[in-house]
Write a structure and sequence with these properties.
This protein has 17 helices and no strands. The chain is mostly helical and 371 residues long.
């Protein structure tokens, strides 16, 4: 059974980790602990009263609108393309928010998020994502657009795990969509296999009340190993996941030492491994998981974001302390997207059911268009 609390927990959790980590993303550990104390950053470093999110959360939200654009096209027209293609359309709108100024000209857009002024903030967008989306060719697993394994592919795919239930697609098919969406911009196997892994874990946690994070991770390891059997670098990926699991069970190791063994998170497999370590170690404590995931010298916003996606899917919104909800940038937009993913499109091509708000957002790409 899917749970709206888990949907909201996943997306808000990701944004919380992103915002906490974004403040220290480009600091080394000496600077982090000197500035924030021996525990590192544990509270938002507000700018103008706002806990700013980065491109990680921005692209996550554009992933979600791409999914809903695709479904709405299929429901209202009776035919649709692939989900990665619609998500790619949505990413072209994200690219415009990073390269143009608000408001955009009144031509056709794919995502209503371009009507949100805050989306036009440039928060260290990844060069690989920018260059790949600017390229007129769409990257796929079969026809890769580059050989990047940066974390820009994995940090944005959580909505795919949330959105699909196994009654619509098999879990293997859902994982594959995650990998294909990462491959739009990141063509290295270690750029897209971790995305399939994260989608798998999120899907299991968001749609089941009786599964642990460890069980979800172990099932992901099995599924990725099967789906990508024979793929170069698969064994390297699986061994890193095994290391993350083992380190999470080590009662003596310090979190920072464990993260150093897993990597800095600038590449996708390390981002997922660090997030898995923190999520397993502190599976019942969102605050501890997030704080551990961002206080290191690597890509803190991405490791924080993916950790927040995982633990938020497991604990739900109710498991996230209120102080992390206060001042979070775009909180209401994030919650709105979670509601849309959960409720889904109900309009059909026979027009017997009408929803002007949905039509405004996912057909006309304008926010909450009313009568």
């Amino acid at each position: 059974m899917k749970s709206i609390d888990k949907y909201k927990g996943c997306l808000i959790g990701g944004a919380v980790g992103d915002a906490l980590g974004y403040a220290v993303e480009f600091l080394d550990e000496a600077a982090i602990f000197s500035r924030y104390g021996e525990k590192g950053i544990t509270e938002y470093d507000l700018r103008n009263g706002v806990a700013e999110i980065s491109d990680d959360t921005q692209m996550t939200l554009f992933t979600a609108t791409g999914l809903l654009l695709g479904t709405t096209r299929g429901m209202t027209r009776g035919i649709m393309g692939t989900y990665p293609s619609y998500i790619n359309y949505s990413y072209t709108d994200w690219y415009k928010t990073q390269s143009e100024s608000y408001p955009l000209p009144e031509d056709y857009h794919y995502s209503w998020l371009v009507t949100v002024p805050e989306m036009f903030a440039r928060r260290a967008p990844g060069n690989t994502c920018l260059s790949a989306i600017r390229n007129p060719d769409m990257g796929t697993i079969e026809k890769t657009i580059n050989n990047s394994k940066g974390c820009g592919g994995v940090m944005r795919v959580a909505p795919i795990g949330l959105y699909f239930e196994e009654k619509r697609y098999s879990l293997d098919e859902i994982d594959r969509i995650g990998a294909e969406v990462a491959a739009l911009t990141h063509g290295h196997p270690l750029g897209y296999m971790p995305a399939a892994g994260l989608v798998h874990v999120i899907n299991l946690l968001a749609h089941n009340d009786d599964i642990s994070i460890l069980d979800a991770v172990l099932d992901m390891r099995r599924a990725v190993g099967k789906q990508f059997a024979g793929t170069q670098y698969l064994q390297e990926f699986l061994e890193l996941i095994d290391k993350a699991i083992a380190l999470s069970e080590d009662k003596e190791i310090d979190d920072l030492d464990a993260i150093h063994e897993l990597g800095e998170g600038w590449v996708a497999e390390e981002t997922l491994a660090v997030a898995i370590y923190c999520s397993l170690k502190y599976c019942n404590n969102f605050e501890k998981a997030i704080i551990a995931s961002v206080n290191h010298r690597g890509d803190s916003d991405s490791t924080g974001s993916v950790t927040g996606n995982i633990v938020g899917s497991y604990l739900g919104l109710k498991g996230i302390p209120q102080r992390f909800l206060n001042n979070l940038e775009l909180k209401e937009v994030i919650l709105e997207i979670a509601d849309d993913l959960y409720n889904d499109c109900k309009i059909t091509e026979d027009n017997l059911y009408q929803d002007k708000v949905w039509e405004g957002k996912y057909i006309k790409a304008k926010r909450k268009e009313q009568d």
